[in-house]
């Protein structure tokens, strides 16, 4: 049997370890947002694109948007944060 060197057309496939690391960073950021005070992250989605965390969804105040960025940047393994969170939910003080 003869083995040929692997060749890829276009982008190389992502390695499983890289996907696992990405998922663990996403989960760590999502968890940090949930336990952080001053933000209701129930409508916030955390994904990782290239080497940056992307936050999307809605919150009730501009302060919550800013707090989400600060919390995400503090998580180990996060190098950059792109915040796409919009105002849309009731403020955190008005929730029952």
Global Rg: 18 Å
For the largest sheet, list the strands in their spatial order.
Answer: 1-2-3
Average pLDDT works out at: 85
Q: Let me know the largest β-sheet.
A: 3 strands, mixed
Q: Unreliable segments (pLDDT under 50, ≥5 consecutive)? A: none
**Span from first to last CA?**
68 Å
Q: Characterize the overall form.
A: elongated
Primary descriptors:
96 residues, alpha+beta, 3-stranded mixed beta sheet, 2 helices, 3 strands
Task: Describe the protein.
The chain has 96 residues and is of the alpha+beta class. Helices cover 33% and strands 22% of the residues. The chain is built from two helices and three strands, in the order H-E-E-H-E. It has helices at residues 16-35, 62-73, and strands at 44-49, 52-59, 81-87. A three-stranded mixed β-sheet has the order 1-2-3. Strand 1 and strand 2 form a beta hairpin. The longest helix has 20 residues, at 16-35. It is elongated and about 70 Å long. The relative contact order is 0.19. The mean pLDDT is 85.
Give the arrangement of secondary structure elements.
Elements: H1 16-35, E1 44-49, E2 52-59, H2 62-73, E3 81-87
Parallel strand pairs: 2-3
Antiparallel strand pairs: 1-2
Summarize the structure.
By secondary structure, the chain is of the alpha+beta class. The chain contains two helices and three strands; from the N terminus they run H-E-E-H-E.
